[in-house]
Amino acid sequence: MKKLSLIMAALLCFLSVIPVSASETASEEIKTRYICDANGDGAVTAADARIILRHSVGLIYTEGFGWMDYNDIIYCDADKSGAIDAADARVALRTAVKLEEAQGRAFTITDSLNPSCEYEAYVKAVCSLTGDTVNITVAKNPHDLSQEQICAGGGYCSVCKKTVAVTPVHDFDIDKCQGVKRCIYCRYEEHFKGGHEYSSSSLICRECSESVYDEYEDFLIGFIKKNGEKISDASGRTAYIYEESDEYFVVGLIFYPDENGLYVYSGMAVDAEGEIVYNESYFSMRQMKIEVISYTEEALLANSFARVDVPLLKNGTGNGVTVIEYWSVPEFQDQKEQYGIISASMALMSCAWLKDLAERTDFTYSDILFSNNPEFR
Fold first, then answer.
1. What is the number of other CB atoms lying within 10 angstroms of the CB of residue 184?
2. If exposure means fewest CB atoms within 10 Å of the residue's CB, which of 8, 45, 65, 130 is most exposed?
3. Which of 123, 47, 143, 61 is nearest to 89 (CA)?
4. Residues 247, 249: Cα–Cα separation, whole Å
5. How do residues 85-140 score in pLDDT, each as one tens digit?
6. How many other CB atoms are found less than 10 A from the CB of residue 150?
7. What was the pLDDT predicted at 314?
8. Residue 72 CA: distances (Å) to CA of 107, 264, 375
9. CA distances, 20 to each of 23, 32, 98, 144, 355 (Å)
10. Are 134 and 72 in contact (CB under 8 A)?
């Protein structure tokens, strides 16, 4: 019996020094990671799907592999296509919402090549649990060119030491209102059909904060320069003038570039007891002010400045014109109220003519300025 006990003890000692198999040890030490766990946080979520999708279109750059680290990217080729693309992002999203079961792997990188502008990069790995392999390639890196060189269509690459040609790619600053895209580096321009964005309740563009009055004034100034004539007035100031007239009345536009002054000009002549009296008005749509001048061939008779409220003028619900300055020769001193009436009449006529001109010349924002604007409606 004693001999049997010694034999058993010896056998136990022998078994205690026999090594445990490598597979059993490895299974305890191997760390797994889910396929499509792009950020390595231990779960597959919508954030991973977003990372994979952004990577597939070149919107994520991280150290190592160029767009994602080697140790991240080897878990992102869910369909084993050899590329990270939208299909992998779809798998990630389906896994995140439990439509597909998360698959754990334990990849070890076996070979890799850093990206360059001369050759494609790749990373290879094998799973120590399943034996699955991945072999992922990506396109060459872009050449090391400055933005100015890229705009110009190529230049000298400091990496491959070659002069290379590339398709020009510009960094555009886009002006939606003016319809122009302008590169912030080389000033190259592309044009498209632009336009302001006015709401039905506002005369201010939502995009550039420019008033519809500014747009119409710019339009009218261009119209005068194209269709009118350049003159010098009695005081020597340069002006552009455009006129339309019939037998009794003249109406048009006058623009003084030195002072950036734009006015609707109107004039008529009346026979006052055998003497011709000329009445002229200068209406500023922006300021809603009107100046009226009366004169003969020999002398100035009267000059008035008035504020204009077009809705009151049209509705007749109040004093639509307020004379703020008035000068006259003694014979016209009692005519201030009469000049208020004249100012009102000429202001209404000026607004009606402006609206008609906008419609005849196809001003883009005619409805905004006139139909939807209480100043002119």
1. 12
2. 8
3. 47
4. 6
5. 999 999 999 999 999 999 999 999 999 988 788 888 899 999 999 999 999 987 67
6. 20
7. 65
8. 10, 70, 64
9. 9, 22, 38, 54, 97
10. no
pTM of this prediction?
0.52
Cα within 13 Å of Cα(244), Cβ side:
10
Q: Which two tokens stand for residue 55?
A: 């990577």
- 217-260, pLDDT tens digit by residue? 889 999 999 999 999 877 888 999 999 987 778 999 999 998 88
Which residues are 291's β-sheet partners?
Answer: 282, 305
Residue by residue, what is the 3-state secondary structure of the chain?
CHHHHHHHHHHHHHHHCCCCCHHHHHHHHCCCEECCCCCCCCCCCHHHHHHHHHHHCCCCCECCCECCCHHHHCCCCCCCCCCCCHHHHHHHHHHHCCCCCCCEECEEEEEEECCCCCCCEEEEEEECCCCCEEEEEECCCCCCCCHHHHHHCEEEECCCCEEEECCCCCCEEEECCCCEEEECCCCCEEECCCCCCCCCCCCECCCCCCEHHHHHHHHHHHHHHHHCEEEECCCCCEEEEEEEECCCEEEEEEEECCCCEEEEEEEEEEEECCEEEEEEEEEECCCCEEEEEEECCCCEEEEEEEEECHHHHHHCCCCCEEEEEEEECHHHHHHHHHHHHHHHHHHHHHHHHHHHHHHHCCCCCHHHHHHCCCCCC
